[in-house]
Each structure stands twice: as C-alpha cells, then as structure tokens.
Design brief:
This protein is α+β, with helices and mostly antiparallel strands and 756 residues long. The protein is built from 26 helices and 24 strands.
C-alpha cells in the first residue's frame, strides 16, 4: 500500500477529529461571490458542464520530511503479579452512549428489567451485564464502575476524567475509553496514558495480532512508535455498508413478459437527471457465475445511455419507463439475463451501473399501483436511515457509485490517489459532479423529500426507515445490512402488513469505470478497519503492579480466542455448538439467544448485544462477523452471502491491509495519523475549525453538512435551499477559503511518515 487515506484524528500531539465542513446556511461574505452559472451539457466532456472544476490535485513539493516511524525505546520491566490467584479491583469506565449501554444494567426506557437471561440468571438494576460478569469471573478481578450517569457519551466521560485529573473520589482511574485522537493528545500533552508498546511482551495475543497486521500497527502508533490504546474493530477485513433494496419490487418490474396493463400511467417523472455515463459503451465485465464459486463475463454494449433513452420518451410514466428499461437490458446485454432481468441488479452476475440504477429508481417511483396496489402511495426510491447528521452521511457514501473515493474514509474524507498520495473528496472534481447528480435525482423525487428534517414525507420522529418500510414506501438505502434487514421478519413491528413476498436485502455495488478506460468493475471502499474509539490504561495504574498486571491481562484476553468468543458471541449459555461462516467454523448462537434477539430488540443485534449482554462496545477487541451474520434475517442471508462470495471470487474489489500494493485503490486508509506535535497544533487550531464543522459525518452538536442544502437546492441559486452559485465557486470556497487544499497536505505527510 503505500500512501493512505483520510483525515480524521491525529495520532500525535493534539490530533483531531476530522469530520468535514459546512454550515447549513449560505456562505458568508468571506466566501467567493456566486454570480455566474457554468454552461452545461455532457457530464463527460471537459469542455462541458464540469470543465471549470479543478481536478483536485495537491502540490506536495513542500519539502516535508517523511522519515518512517520505527519501533524504538526500552521494554518495560515485568509489571509484577501475572497469575490470577489474587482478586484485584480495577477502577473502570466502559460505555457506549446512554445509561442503557453501560457495563451495568440501569433502569431505562430501552431495557426490560428485571431481565431473566439465557443462562437462567435474573438481572436487576445495578447488576453487571453477562459479558462483564463473566470477564470478572474468568480473570478473577472486581470492577469498580466509575462511569458517571451525567456523561452521555464516551467523549463526555473523557472530558470529565481529564478535568478531574483521572481520579474519581480520590482514586486513580485504571481503564477508560476515548477517541484515538483524544487519547493520543492527552498522552503526548500530559503523560497520563500508558504506552502499551512497552508492555507487549506481557500481552502475547495482542502482540501477535499487531505483528500479523503491520498496517494496523502503523495506524495506531504515534509519531514516535508508541501505542496508547487497544483498538476496537466492529468486524475486521470485511465489507461494512452496502446498497439494500426491495428485491421483490425489482422482480415485479423487470421479470417475465412485458404486460403494459400491469404498470402505471397515473404517475410521471419530471426529468431533471441527465446521463452520467457515456452514450456508447462496449465493455466486458467480470461477474460471478451462477454457482457463486467462480467468475464469468458479461458484455455491456450500447450506443445510447438508458437515461438518454428515457429522457426522449414522450411521457415518463410507469409503463414507458419500465418498457424502456426492459428493452435496454435485453439489447445492451444481448439477452444474457433472459426473462430474469432483475439479476442485472440483484443477481450473482449483477453488472448495473449508476445510470441503470437511476433508470430503475424512476420506474419504481412511477409505479406505486403496480408495486403496492395503492395509486396514492408516494414511493421513495432512495433514503437515508434517519434525520441525524451521522445517518444522513450514508446518502453521500452512495456517491461512490459515481466513481467517488474518500466518502467511505475511516476518518474524514481522504483517499489514496493513483500516485500513492492522500487526497480529499470534499474538493475533488468527481465529488462535485456526484453532488450535482444527486441534486438532479432529488429534483425528480428519487431521494426522500426534505431529508434532514424530523417531520417529512409522513415521518414524525426522524426515523425514516421505520416509517417507510412499515408503510411499504421505501425502495432502497445505503447502510448496514443486519440492522436494516430486520423488517423481513413478518413479526417485526415495521414489516409492512399484508406483504407476503417482501424481501429487503443487499445487492452488489454498481460497476464503475474507476480507471477512466471504459473498464467497469465492482469496488467498495466500505471496509472494516480500526474504529475511531478504543480503551486505554492510565499511566497512574503503573504505580500498582498488581492492578497494572491485571489490566494488561484484561486487554490481552480480549485478543485471545476465548476472550474474543466471549465479547463477540456472549457467555456459554448464548452459544450452542458451531456453524459455518465463509467456510470457517464459528460459534453458533443458541436458540435462547436468537429468541432474545427477536423479543427484546426486534432483531437488531447491536441493540441486543449492547443493552443486554454488554458487548459491541468500543473496547479493544475484534468483533467477529460470524455473529452478526447469524442475526441477519433468514430471508436476507442469501444476499449477504452473495456479497461475501463476490469478495472471495475477486469480483468485488476492496481495500486491503497490505503495505506493498501497486494499485493504490487497494490501500486501506488510516483511522488516525501520526502527526508531529507542530503539525497537530496547526490542524487543530482556529484556522481549520470551520472546515471541520462544515461538512461533517459527526453526530456531535455543532457539526453539520451543507451538502444537504446543496443537494436539495442545487448549485444554481434556483432553490430555497441553495448554497452556491456554481460548482467552481463551491470548490474554491472549500479548497481555498476553508483551507481544505492545504489541510490535506498535513495528512499526506503524516501518511508517508507512517510507512503505509
């Protein structure tokens, strides 16, 4: 791999959370004037609509030293007591967010207490949850939970403890959590965090993991090679988010013989979307074979883009749009899909591009009668899960279907360009074009109306997915698989009543001409790596050899086979034998566990594990995906495995953890960066604060994303939610006024120093 991505937190001095920029209001007078609109035509010609956008390259000839980090320093002395004969008490703060996601049960609206668990134990308010109960028993230690009820997040707790000198009631805190950037900053500035690297010989499991995964080591160590936290992985080396859609609706629209009477004429699309891809394509695409154990080839050949064909229709109604798309599929793919045209989108041999997907969205939007039996229903082709800023971000991750990289960054919006340098999606030409295309889709009603508002389109609480699925209105979203496919269960509260063939499941991502050579292939940057938070041991803990030894044992235990099984699957009563996942034997969840998942959390495994078992918290371990797969609704599991098979066969390409890739599209980008102290002070200073609050994926108060207004109002000052007068003016403001073009240089320099 050679130079990697994003820009979120800093691994050195005062590292910082890089979220992005954008007040949701019109730029101030300090922004460039927005007076002229770009002349427009084809999205593909440099002389057309997007010709005035700069390509997003950065001048790296700044003379920055890039000496790679090396492991230096003395090994720590034996911390002392290593056996488990004596019980040791550790002062700990572990949580996820509110009171329902702590180590102990607390009376909360999301919890049903008392809780009689799968192991027959009845838990009440104040009891340790099963995982933390088992940990104390297995390692013979006692947890003194010092978490404050007033702190509602890990960030809040970190600030409280820092302010109080890492003490609670006069006692030293031993173990706590934080963002990687906050941990690193506190360690460097105040020496209050223990350097775990010095104790790796006393953590053999953790050490073995780091030695096996050099890229991970590079990501989590600071500028001098020290490691201040054990990282959390919400799954590792596997796909994370994906496109999810109603398979049953795709089949209804596309499969079998065409019968005009089955489709609608009462709804039409007011065209605004223009073709993104070229008119003429003649390309061979690698897909999976029908058995999903090898590859095959599909030829994509056309002389007119499907969007152009639809835009020429006299009337863009349900009948005409479906007929045009069916005919196009038959001709473009030479009948390869036969009467099962839906496979172009949802099959093992899927080969659709983004224009074909938009053409399908149009057909969905215009066929409420055919799809729901109710002409009055307003189907939403594409929607984000919720109104919160962090959930709206998934709509912008969808832009990778337009060839954008950096929107799935582990932190911020960084990606590794073809030369191995870090670039930023926020000012990149491809991102600006993709935002323009989303705006065109929004104008056609293909994206949820007024997304970002709690009350919109029938929704009253900002929970878009609940309302849309329950009322049989939502077609697709880009999100996590398990939590969004729970609606397939007819017993789920949000399963649409009376819909027997309902199937909401994953699909492979769109194929894209990623290299600009008319060669299309599946690729996703949504790849599980180091999460942005972990846990650490305070430096003061080293004063007590017994406490230090037990804390190190705990950290190492979660990287052992036994400890990982406990944190990923739960205690013994939650496991019953083994099952297969991706060809490997993994612990099988017991019938009692699966029943609790359904009855206590409506099938949502994250809510179940966090609220009732005490797992899936950001503490140092690798959460196994074999557990999550077993929690996927049975109807959606085949589609989930299809994605995994596409990865196994090489059809779906993705970043990896190699450090010697020659194709830098495969480089995994860091979650944190090794800044020098001087660099850290600059990037966390006032100069870049507006940048880091203006276009953000964060749920933190004060952070937002003005892309919402841009997509809903457009670049052309013709909407009540406009932000800009031209795409070039937007690019200039973000790159120059907000400083994104210089900001990203710090990340590239740090990236090179990390030896990625």
């Amino acid at each position: 791999m050679k130079f990697k991505k994003s820009m979120i937190m800093a691994l050195s001095a005062s590292a910082m959370l890089l979220t992005a920029c954008g007040p949701s209001s019109t730029p101030t007078s300090s922004s460039p004037s927005a007076s002229e609109e770009p002349a427009g035509s084809s999205a593909q010609k440099e002389t057309g609509k997007y010709a005035d956008l700069k390509p997003g390259t950065v001048d790296y000839k700044d003379g920055t030293a890039v000496t790679p980090i090396s492991w230096t320093g003395e090994k720590a002395q034996n911390p002392g007591v290593e056996n488990l004969d004596s019980n040791v008490t550790l002062n700990m703060s572990v949580m996820y967010q509110d009171q329902d996601t702590r180590m102990k049960f607390h009376t909360h609206k999301n919890l049903k207490l008392p809780y009689t668990a799968a192991d027959g134990t009845t838990y009440n308010d104040g009891d340790f949850k099963p995982v933390w109960r088992a940990l104390q028993s297995n390692l013979n230690f006692t947890i003194n939970d010092v978490s404050s009820e007033s702190d509602k997040s890990i960030a809040d707790a970190f600030t409280t403890y820092k302010t109080n000198g890492w003490k609670v009631n006069g006692q030293d805190i031993n173990i706590a959590q934080g963002s990687a950037s906050n941990i690193q900053e506190e360690a460097l500035a105040n020496n209050n965090i223990l350097d775990l690297r010095a104790y790796l010989d006393y953590m053999p499991n953790f050490k073995a993991f780091l030695e096996k995964n050099k890229a991970i080591t590079n990501i989590i160590q600071d500028g001098s090679g020290k490691i201040y936290y054990a990282p959390y992985f919400d799954g590792f080396d596997d796909v994370e988010r994906m496109l999810l859609l109603r398979h049953d609706w795709v089949k209804t629209l596309l499969d079998g013989d065409f019968d005009a009477t089955k489709f609608s004429t009462d709804r039409t699309i007011s065209k605004a979307y223009e073709a993104f891809g070229p008119e003429a394509v003649d390309s061979e695409i690698t897909v999976m074979n029908k058995e999903e154990n090898g590859t095959a080839k599909v030829t994509k050949k056309h002389s007119a883009n499907i969007i152009t064909l639809q835009n020429k229709l006299e009337k863009l109604d349900g009948v005409s749009l479906v007929k045009a798309l069916r005919d196009y599929i038959d001709q473009t793919y030479a009948g390869a899909y036969g009467s099962q045209r839906s496979d172009l989108f949802i099959g093992a041999n899927a080969a659709y591009d983004v224009d074909e997907l938009v053409a399908l969205y149009r057909a969905v939007k215009a066929n409420s009668t055919a799809l729901t039996g109710d002409a009055k229903k307003e189907i939403v082709p594409l929607y984000p899960r919720e109104s919160s800023n962090d959930r709206l971000s998934d709509l912008y991750r969808f832009t990778q279907f337009f060839g954008v990289r950096g929107v799935e960054a582990r932190s911020g919006f960084a990606f590794v360009d073809e030369n191995g340098h870090i670039q930023d999606a926020r000012t990149n030409k491809k991102m600006v074009i993709a935002l323009d295309k989303l705006s065109e889709m929004y104008k056609e009603g293909l994206i949820l109306e007024n997304y970002g508002e709690k009350a919109t389109h029938g929704v009253t609480d900002g929970k878009y997915e609940n309302y849309l699925q329950k009322n049989n209105l939502g077609f697709s979203t880009y999100d996590y698989n398990q939590t969004q496919t729970v609606y397939n269960d007819p017993g789920n509260d949000n399963h649409p009543a009376g819909v027997d063939n309902y199937l909401f499941a994953a699909a492979l991502p769109a194929v894209v001409d990623w290299k600009g050579n008319r060669q299309y292939f599946h690729y996703t940057e949504s790849w599980r790596s180091v999460k942005t938070e972990g846990w650490f041991i305070t430096a003061a803990t080293a004063k007590d050899s017994a406490k230090l030894a037990r804390a190190l044992k705990l950290f190492d235990y979660l990287y052992s086979t036994e400890g990982n099984k406990l944190m990923s699957y739960g205690p013994t009563a939650w496991v019953d034998g083994t099952t297969k996942y991706l060809g490997k034997d993994v612990p099988a969840l017991s019938a009692k566990a699966l029943n609790e998942l359904k009855t206590l959390a409506k099938g949502n495994y994250t809510n179940y594990y966090r609220r009732y078992l005490g797992a899936t918290y950001p503490v140092g371990y690798v959460k196994e995906q074999g557990m999550e797969y077993q929690c996927v609704a049975a109807a959606a599991q085949p589609a989930t495995l299809r994605l995994e098979n596409a990865i196994a066969t090489g059809v779906l390409k993705h970043p990896n953890f190699n450090t010697d890739n020659t194709d830098h599209m495969l480089d995994i980008t860091p979650t944190t960066y090794s800044f020098t102290e001087a660099q850290s002070k600059v990037i966390s200073g006032d100069k870049y604060q507006n940048l880091n609050k203006t276009m953000s994926y964060s749920k933190t108060s004060g952070y937002s994303n003005f892309w919402n207004n841009l997509v809903q109002g457009g670049f052309d000052l013709k909407g009540d939610k406009n932000v800009w007068g031209s795409m070039a003016k937007y690019q200039e403001y973000v790159g120059t006024t907000l400083g994104c073009d210089t900001y990203i240089k710090f990340f590239d320099a740090a990236y090179r120093r990390m030896g990625m």
